[in-house]
Design goal:
Structural class: alpha+beta
Helix content: 40-55%
Distance between the termini: 76 Å
Strand content: 15-25%
CATH topology of the largest domain: Ferritin
CATH class of the largest domain: Mainly Alpha
Radius of gyration: 28 Å
Number of helices: 15
CATH architecture of the largest domain: Up-down Bundle
Shape: globular
């Protein structure tokens, strides 16, 4: 069998390569070699091949590697190591997510953008399995972000869901809120375990319809715990956006889980460098292990599963003071639904204080019912887009009481000052919030 019939190219470049070999082996003219190579590919001539292949030519999009790294140190055994997973995505990391948005997602809050191609754990994990689980969770979140174009907005259900305390979403679990970068519309991902909602589909659909939302289930297992049976459901007001996100997730063919680890395990030293880091001159250092941190005269280190490692003021704020601060925070956050500059800053204060009270008191001193209502109970009623003078004054007074209670019950230290700065920002936004009785004009903070 002759060479040109033994090989059957499927592209213009393939036809040209075959023509090179025919021309060299048979000492014929270039034009004749192109004709013969085209016929071997199933076309009548080279012109026919060019027309046909040009019509079907789809430029290949460049793909990008993201290196995800986590260090671990098992204190009881003394073992240490590093886990690295490289994922391939369609968009550059910085095109899809800002480094500050990592804190808005449960799978990314323990990581940081170290370089344009490298995401690294901010602290040292407690053992190899925990490190692998964290890396795979971050990988799933980054795949979701890359495919959908959604950006992390909150680790929990937020407006327009949060105001409906009297009508909770049936079977909701592990929910997160996302923002579409193009339209600004919100999308809720709900990731309950499949057995928990197997008989509640009609109830959940009715709830979504009642609140003007579309509810759809993705074929992709999702981000929370796909290896343990969680499932991904999407809620959105914009039906077209919901459909686009659904199609994007259904096309995903990767869902990394630690049970089938495909990454690289290595000693913790030397420190891992991604290709971009290896090509630069920046010095790199491994993350610190906060478990080895010591208390100071005014601060105490702590660690929580979802929040990671941080510091809080030494000592304990009395429970009744936590109750009062929580009540004022919930009232203020609810009232500032139309003032993001107030609501978002105070929500960060609330999240931090919720961590502090968990560290300060065990379940014998603080029962679950009281704890659940303390900082994340019912919110206050929202003000109109332009509050009255009295409403704005009440909001500022609530923030003043929060500041006073924190100052009275905790020493002067950086953790307390950090909350003070957030309250400062919220106060400035509240002070500039236009007042009036007209509910139509909008205000932004």
């Amino acid at each position: 069998m002759s060479l040109d019939f033994a090989l059957r190219p499927s592209s213009i470049e393939g036809i040209k390569r075959l023509a090179d070999r025919i021309q060299r082996d048979e000492a014929i003219q270039r034009a004749e070699a192109l004709e013969r190579a085209s016929r071997s590919a199933g076309y009548s001539n080279y012109a026919h091949a060019r027309r046909s292949l040009a019509d079907s030519l789809v430029p290949e999009r460049p793909r990008h590697d993201i290196h995800i790294t986590a260090y671990w140190h098992d204190l009881p055994t003394g073992e240490t190591g590093r886990e690295t997973l490289v994922i391939v995505v369609d968009h550059r990391l910085d095109e899809r997510i800002d480094r500050r948005q990592f804190a808005n997602n449960r799978h990314l809050l323990s990581f940081r953008r170290k370089e344009s191609d490298h995401v690294e754990g901010k602290q040292v994990f407690g053992d190899q399995r925990t490190a692998r689980k964290a890396v795979c969770g971050a990988a799933r979140a980054l795949h979701f972000i890359d495919a959908t174009g959604l950006q992390p907005y909150s680790r929990s259900l937020v407006s327009p869901i949060e105001r409906w305390q009297s009508d909770p979403f049936p079977g909701s679990d592990h929910a997160s809120t996302w923002r579409d970068a193009a339209s600004g519309e919100l999308v809720i991902t709900d990731e309950p375990y499949r057995p928990a909602i197997s008989s509640r589909d009609a109830e959940r659909l009715a709830w979504a319809e009642r609140h003007g939302l579309t509810l759809s289930a993705s074929k992709w297992p999702g981000m929370y715990a796909p290896g343990a049976g969680s499932s991904l459901h999407l809620l959105a007001r914009d039906a077209q956006l919901a459909q686009r996100v659904l199609v994007s997730t259904d096309r995903l063919r990767v869902c990394p889980v630690d049970e089938t680890w495909t990454g690289t395990s290595a000693p913790s030293r030397p420190v891992y460098r991604s290709p971009v880091e290896a090509g630069g001159r920046k010095s790199v250092r491994a993350p610190r292990d906060p478990r080895l941190a010591r208390s100071t005269a005014t601060t105490t280190p702590y660690a929580l599963v979802l929040s990671g490692h941080s510091r809080k003021p030494t000592g304990r704020m009395p429970l009744d003071a936590h109750d009062r601060v929580g009540r004022d925070l919930r009232t203020a956050i609810g009232s500032a639904e139309y003032r993001p500059g107030v609501r978002e800053k105070l929500d960060r204060v609330r999240s931090e204080l919720d961590d502090w009270v968990q560290v300060e008191y065990d379940r014998q001193e603080l029962d679950m019912e009281r704890f659940s209502a303390m900082y994340y109970g019912a919110l206050g009623a929202p003000f109109k887009r332009r509050p009255t003078v009295a409403e704005r004054s009440a909001l500022l007074e609530a923030m003043g009481r929060i500041r006073e209670l924190l100052g009275r019950h905790s020493p002067d230290c950086e953790p307390r000052r950090r909350l003070g700065r957030l309250i400062d920002h919220a106060e400035r936004s509240a002070q500039s919030w236009p007042v009036g009785t007209d509910s139509n004009p909008s205000a932004s903070g």
